[in-house]
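#data-curation
PF: Archiving a pair of folding outputs for the training set. Convention for this channel: one message per protein, sequence first, C-alpha cells after, nothing in between. First:
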Amino acid sequence: MTRLKGRLAMMRTVSGKATVLSVVFWMACLGILAGSAAAQGELRFCLRAEPKTFDPLKVEDDASVTVRYLTGGVLVRMNRQTQALEPELAQSWKVSKDGKQIIFKLRGGVSFSDGTPFSAEDVAYTVQRLMDPALHSPTGDAFRSGPGNVQTKIISPTQISITFPAAVAGLDRQFDQVAILSAHSAKKEMAVLGPFMVADYKPGATLLLKRNPNYWKTDAQGRKLPYLDSIQLDIQSNRDVEMLRFKRGEIDLINSLDSEYFDKLAGASPQLVHDAGPSLDSEQMWFNEVAKAPLPEYKKNWFRSAAFRRAISEAINREDLSRVVFRGHAQAAVGPVSPANKFWFNSKLKADAYAPDAALKALQSEGFRMENGVLKDKGGNAVVFSIITNSGNKYRERMATMIQDDLEKIGIHVNVVTLDFPSLIERMTQTFDYEAILLGLTNVGLDPNEQMNVWLSSSENHQWNPQEKTPVTAWEAEIDKLMRAQASSADAKKRKESFDRVQEIVLEQAPFIYLVNRNALSAVAASVQGASPVILVPQTYWNVDRLSVTENKISSNKPQ
C-alpha cells in the first residue's frame, strides 16, 4: 500500500486529463487487488444426514460436527495435518502441573459475526454452560474427570483461568472441540467466531453458510480470511447420488469415500481422488463373554479363553481382507490405536501374522483336536459359531465370508448372519443373544481419554462383557488401573507409558480381534484450490478458511 500511495502522489503533477486517466487506472489496479483479497466462490458438498442441532455444545452427530467445525471459533485448534496444537482465539495458554487448571491469554479486538465484542466473559459463559449437568453436553463429558464444579476466573478482558475439580488428561487439547458462545449477543449460538455463519436452512434440502465478515484471521499477505464467499451443504444420504453429483460437477468434494467408489473414480479421473493412508477407523470382531448370555456353557468357555481368541486372530488373513475387500485401501490393524495416531500408537506392536498352522497347534495345546477335518473341544463338541454383522454393509459381509473361509481351514465352521442395525444393537446391548459380532469403530479424537467408555470394565461400551460390577479378570482390572492413571496425569510421557501398556494387554488378550484400519479416501474437484486431504476428520476441508473455488470445471469431473 505504501508503494501505491507514492505513485498516486506523483501522478498529481501531470495534466488534468492524464491525472484522471491515471487515477482511474490505479483505482482499477486497487480494485483487482481488493478482488484477490475478497471471497472466491462457493464450495458445495453433501451432509449425509440432517444436522440435529446448531448449538455447538450439544453436538453429537456427524452433520452437526461439520457445522460446528465450519462456524465455531475455538481457543485452540489441533492442526489436522501435523496433529500439533495451535493457537486460535487464545494467543497462548498454560496448564498447571496437576492438570486441573488452564489459563488462557486471549486475542484482543475480535468480534462475533454479529459485531458483538469477544472477551473472557464469553469464555467463562461457554465453559459454565458446557459443564452444566442439566445440558448433558457430549463435548462436556471429556472434562468430567471428578465430582465438583468448574471454576472460572476472569483476570482481565483478555485473560481467564479455568479450574476443574480433578485433573483432566490432555486438558488443552480438549478445547479443540469447544466452540465459544457469546454471553451477550441476542443471536445466542447463531453469533459465531468461526470463518462461516449459518445464513439459510431448508430442512431436508440445504444448509447455506456465508463468510463471517468479522472473522479475525488473515493470511501471510494480510488478506482477510476466509477466501470463500459461501458454502452450500446439500442434505443427501444416498452415496450413489452423491457420487453422480460429484461427477457432474454439482458438488466439489466428497469427504469420505468407500474403496469401490474410490477406484471407479480413480479409473476415470485419478487427479481428483486422494488416499491419505490409514485412518483412525478400525474393523474388528469380538466374542460374547457375558455371563448371563443364552449360550451353551462349553461355548462360553471357548470365548473366555485368551488362547482361543488369539488362535482365531492368527487364523485370519488380514492382508487378504485389505487386498480383496478394500481393494488395497486398508492395512492390517494392530490394536485399539491406528498408526495414524502418531503420538499414542505403540510402535513396538505388530499385527498378528496369518499363521493357521500355529493357530491350530495352539488350540491343540488347549485340548482341542481335529477329527475328519472338524475341530472339536475336550468334550467332543464341534467348534461352530455364528458371526453377526449389519446387513447392507457389503464390506463387512465380504469380510465375514472371508473369515468363514479362513477358519474352515483349521476345522472351525462359521455361520454368517446379517441383521438390520437396530436388531444387531438390541442383541449386542440388551438380550446378549449372539456368539460373535463384526463391526467397525469410528475414532474422531486422538486422546486415549476418548476411549474410556470402551476400556473401563464398568462401561456399557465394554462390548465383550459390558458394565462389569467389578473386573472379571486380572487383565481387565489392570486396564482399569492404567486408564485411570493416564486420565489423572498431566505428564504426557507417563500417560503414554500407561496407554502403551493398555495396547499391549489388548493385543495379548484379544478381547477385540482387530482386523484392518481403513484408509482415508476422499475426492476433491479440480476447481477447489488449497485442498490438502488428511487422515483426520474433516479430511478434505480441515483448512476451509484457506480454500477457494476458482470455477466449476464440470467437464473435468465427467467419467471417461
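PF: Second:
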Amino acid sequence: MGSGIFEYGTRRTTVTETWDVPPIELSVKVLPGNSVIKAQLVAENADWPCFHNGVSAALAISPDCKGIDSSWIVFNRPATLNPEHGGLLLGLGLNGHLRSLMAYHAFPYMEPRHDFTSCGLLLGLACSFAGSQDPLCTKVLSLHTHALLPLGSAELNASPIIQSSALLGLGLVHAGSRNLRMAEVALSEVGRNNLSGVELFEGYQESYSFSASMAFGLIMLGRGGKQSSEVDRRLLAKLRRCILGDPTDDSSNAIDTTMTSPGATLALGFMYLKTGQREIANMLEIPQSAFEADHVRPDILLLRVLARSLIMWDEVNASLPWIETQLPPFLQKGHSNHRKTSSMEIACELAYFNIIAGACLAIGLKLAGTGSELAHNNLLFFFGVLLKASCSSSMTYEGKIRRQSARQCLNVVTLALATVMSGTGELNVLRRLRVSHGQEGAGVTYGTHMATHMATGILFLGRGHYTLGNSNMAIAAMCISFFPRFQPSPSDNKAYPQAFRHLWALAAEPRCLMAKDVDTKETVYLPLRTKVQGPQGPYTQRLISPTLIQPYETILQISVDTPRYWPVGYDLTDPADKAALVKTRTMYVKRRAAYLDYNTDPKGNRSMVITAGSISGLDHYYDLLAAAEPMSLPAADVEHIIKTHAGTPDLVAMVQLFSTDSKFDKFVRNVLVECVSMDKTNLIGIYVSMWLGLHGQEDLKVENIAQVSMIRDFYSPSVFTHFCMPADKRLGWIRPNFVTSASRKISDREISESTISAYFSTWQWTPVIAIYLRRNHVPSLEFLRVMKDLVQRSADEVGVLREKVRDAARAYASALQGQYHVDKEGGVGEIKLWKSESIDDALRIWRSAA
C-alpha cells in the first residue's frame, strides 16, 4: 500500500514491453552465517497482499502516460489469472487508463469468475469513468449486480466481493448525478440479509451493506436538499431506518442496524455534503449522558461525528475549541485537559476516543493537502493522547477493549494527520510514523500496519509531486479509503472490502509547482509569492519552489519573489494563464547575470555586485567620463567575474583584448561589468560608440550631438516616466549620470566668436557650430534668413528688435509644434525656444553687417 502511494504517477511505460509487478520479498538473511530463511505463508493470507502489490505497481504509471490502450492491457495478461493482475487492472483504472479498454477485451476477463480479476476490473472501470454516467460501463457493472438483473433471470453466480465491487462501481460511475433509479436500487440493497445463489453471504453481509450505502451516497453526493420531492423524502426516511432502526418492525426482514448503520451514516453525510442543513445533522445524535453512551456503539459515534462534519462543512476548523465542542458536556468534564482518561467509565472513555478521532478525520478532510500549522499541531497532540492510551499494558477484558479501540482511533488520526500534510514529507509526522512502523504486540494487527504504511505513503505522495484535494469526489473517495474498519488479518473482507482502500487515488492532485531556468532547463530553488483567495479575503503566501501550492481554484496570482531572477508572474484569473500553469505546473524563469542560483550561492555572497565591490569598491554611480575616476577593476578580476556569471566566449575575449591601463580599456571593462550585471550586454556597442563619438580626433558630428541630446531628453522625468508603468521602478538601460556627463561635455565646449559670426553673417557651416546650434536651440536656416533681412531693414532699437525676434521665434516654434502629436500629460514633442544670449549674438552680427 505505502509503496504504491509513494510511487504514484512517477514512472512511464514502454508500450513494447510488459509491465513487471515486483514480487513481495519475505525471505530473511540471518547474519553472520548469511543463511536465508523463507517465510511459509498460507495461500489465502498472501492473496490480498499480492493484489495490493499489483495495484501499487500500476499506480506508479503516470496518468499522463501515452500508449496504454486495450491491446497493451491484454498483452500484459498472464496465462493464468492471479491476484497481481487483478490489482494491476484496478491500478490502471485508478489512473484512468481503462477508458481505452474495449468491451470485447473486458468480457473475457469476467468469464473465469476469478474474484481478484473481476473485482479489480469492475472497480477499475468504474474509477476510470467516475462521474461520467457512461452507458456501456453501467451495463458491465449491472451484469454483476443482483438487484439490476431482470426478473426471471438465472441466478448470478458471483461472490459477495464481486457484487460489492459492482455496487460501489455503479455509485462511482453515477457520482453526483442524482439518478433516482440507481439511488433506489442501491438503497434497497443496504438492508439485504440474504442473497439467493450466493454461498456464505451472511458472513459478508456487512461488507455488502457498506458497498450499497457508499453507492447510494456517491449517487446523491452533495445533492440532498437541492430539490424537495416525495422521492427524496422517501429515500431519507428509508436511510434513517438503516441508521437508527425501526422499533415497530419486528418481522424477520427487519433491518439489522449493526450491519447497516456504519455505511448508512456515512452515506447520509455524502448525500448532504456541504449543505449546512442542521436538521439533517441533528438526526445523527451524540449521546448526552453516560447512560445513553452505553446504548451506542463507540465506532458509530466516530462515523456520526464525521458525517455531521461533512454536512456542516463550513463550521469545521482545526482549532482545539472546535474539537472539544464535538464532545458532549459529560465527556468534557472527565478528560483532565486530555491528559488522563483512565478515570472515566469504559463506555465514556471509548466514546471519547471515537468522537475525538471522528473530529480529527473531519479536519484532515477539510484541510487535505494544505499543510495547515494549526491542524498539524492539534492532530499531533491527539496522536500522542491516543498513542499513550493504545500502549496500555492492562490485561483485563476491559483493558483489552480500551486498548483495541484506542488503536483503531489512532489509525484514523494517523491517516488524518498524513492527509493534512500529504506530499510535504513533514519531519515531525515522519518521526512518529517511524516509531509506529514495525510495531508488534497486543492490539497491533494487519490493519494497523496498513494504516501506518498508507500514512507514510501519503506523507510523500507521488514523491512529493502530488497532494490530496477536497472536492466533493475527493472527500467521498478519502472517506471510503480511510473508513475506520481495519482488518485483523490479510484475508478478511467481511466488514470492509480491502480493494476499497485504494480509492484515495481519486483524490490525488498534481500540485507541485516547479521553477525551471529557461536557459539550462534545470529545476531551480526559487522564492515565490502567491495571492490566495481565503474565506476572509485574499492573503499573500510566500513559498520556495519546488513546492506544493493551494488548489488552483483559490490562487489569484503567482509571481517570482527574488531579485536574482527577472520578474515573472501568472494571473490565474486569466483562463489562458491558468490553463498553461495547470498543464505544465512549471514556471520558466531567467536568472539575472549578476547573481548565481540558490543552489550554488545560497546566501548571495557571490553575486557580481558584492564580488566586484569587495575587489575594488566598484561604483555604479561613476559617470565613466570624469577625470577623478574610482579605482577600476583589474583585467584578471573582470575576466573571472565574466567567466563566472556570463561565460560567453566573446565577452571573455573582449576582456582579454582590453586589458591595459589606458582610460579607454578601463572604460570598456567598467561597461562590461555593468552590462553583464544588469543583463544588457547588447548595449556594450552603444556605450563604446558614444565614447568614440565624444573622444574622436575630429570635431563632433551633428548626428552624434543629436543622438546624445535625444537620449538626454528621453531620460528626462517628463518623458521617461511616460513610457514606464506607474509601478515600474526600473532604471534606464543607459547609466543616467553617463548621459548627463556626455551632454555636459558637449555643452561645455568653447565656440569661437569668429565661428559664430561666420555662421550668422554668411551661413558658413563648420562641424563645431552644431554644438552651438543644439545648445542654444537656434531655429532653422530659413527662419534665420528672414529674421536677418527684417533686422537689417528695421530702424528700431536693439531692445525692441530683441522682443520682436523672440516673439517671432515663439510663434515659429508653436507653428512647428502644431505639426506633431503632443502628449497632454507631459512634454513629449515639446520644441524649446531660442535662447536670449544667442538672439543677442545674432542681432549684434546682423546690425554690424548692415
